[in-house]
Write a structure and sequence with these properties.
Bound molecules: zinc ion
Oligomer: single chain
Number of strands: 10
Helix content: 25-40%
Strand order of the largest sheet: 1-6-7-5
Largest sheet: 4 strands, antiparallel
CATH topology of the largest domain: N-terminal domain of MutM-like DNA repair proteins
Strand content: 15-25%
Distance between the termini: 33 Å
CATH architecture of the largest domain: Alpha-Beta Barrel
Radius of gyration: 20 Å
Number of domains: 2
CATH superfamily of the largest domain: MutM-like, N-terminal
Amino acid sequence: MPELAEVEYYRRVWAESLGLPVTGVLLHPEARVFRGCLQPLDTLNRLNGATFNQALAHGKQLLFGFEAAGWLGIHLGMSGQLRCEAKDSVQDRHDHLILRLPGRSLVFHDPRMFGRVRFDAATDLPDWWTQQPPDLLSPGFTRERLDAFLLKRGGTPIKALLLDQSIFPGIGNWMADEILWRSRIHPATPARQLAASAGERLWRTTREVTEDALRVIAPDWGDAPDDWLFNHRWKDGGFCPRPRCRSPLSRADLRGRTTCWCPKCQKSATS
Ligand SMILES: [Zn+2]
């Protein structure tokens, strides 16, 4: 599932076409990705002739602006991808939306269709966009905001909280595991316990992992270095990448999500 760095990568794929006018719109009007869009065929045809002039990302949300026509919002869901292809690319059955531009096509592809397309005809940024929680690297993501949230959701395991988009926009499963591994926090630790002891560490590491993910993945989907948990967490039999540790990693289901941690570096919440 695309997390904030992968989403930023896809934003850049389309952003290379900023300044060009839309010359045609192809879509699958019955596709589930248009469930938030009334009469998608008529609605999205308004993009015809409009100049593509904005490409924004926030957490897992994307917003593309078209001068005087409106805003196209895209959430990639589980399996969504954005591509830019040669002019007359043929529409694959999972390419639910194609915008033709001079010399190229912008494609939204989503086999599982948990993704979502929406359209706002307004000139100003849509409310749903401006009302999103502060970006993790913005001044609005403060220690105080984090601590208040940890206390409010006191009994919840921290791993589950890290996936809550209302405080951690753009964090998904791999980033949550990476943050907890780097900050040596056991994923099942109740949030309340961290507010008192490790709030600062969690806040700093969240921003550090966000910066690292954007730096490595967003420009060209670069490979994560081997000293991140990332490369070791995907299958059974992985080892902690800390040179002095190298312990076998643990993997378990926590509130419905596969979670990976190092039992030596991330001591049990109750021990
Ligand atoms: Zn370890």
